[in-house]
Amino acid sequence: xxxxxxxxxxxxxxxxxxxxxxxxxxxxxxxxxxxxxxxxxxxxxxxxxxxxxxxxxxxxxxxxxxxxxxxxxxxxxxxxxxxxxxxxxxxxxxxxxxxxxxxxxxxxxxxxxxxxxxxxxxxxxxxxxxxxxxxxxxxxxxxxxxxxxxxxxxx
Length: 155
Hints:
Layout (H helix, E strand, L loop, with lengths): L7 H21 L3 E7 L4 E6 L4 E5 L11 H5 L2 E2 L5 E4 L4 E4 H7 L3 H13 L4 H12 L22
């Protein structure tokens, strides 16, 4: 299936939603307003739009291992605040990706699943209506429940 180009009207209609997402990401602190290299701790320190500081060790980024102090210190944020850039090294890092990398895999999966569960679509609404017409979500059987009879057994 070939890709379809968006018309100017379709692009323009998407701009308000994109601006709203950008504003929400800025409020949530998923954007960087500044970045610097802390030579003493060998960390890159980001100041996020939320006011939080986030630092990560240079050793976790293979592309920065052999970089000189001057090269590491030459870090910049792009205009949108969603990426860090080292021009001399030709290295770009995603700010949301760095933030997520600080969280274990199970927590990342829970977060992504939560976001996906919030998604709204015509298909999801139709499936929900059809399920509701059948009496809703089936109750868990006692055999599927854990010893406390409140949570599914993690067998």
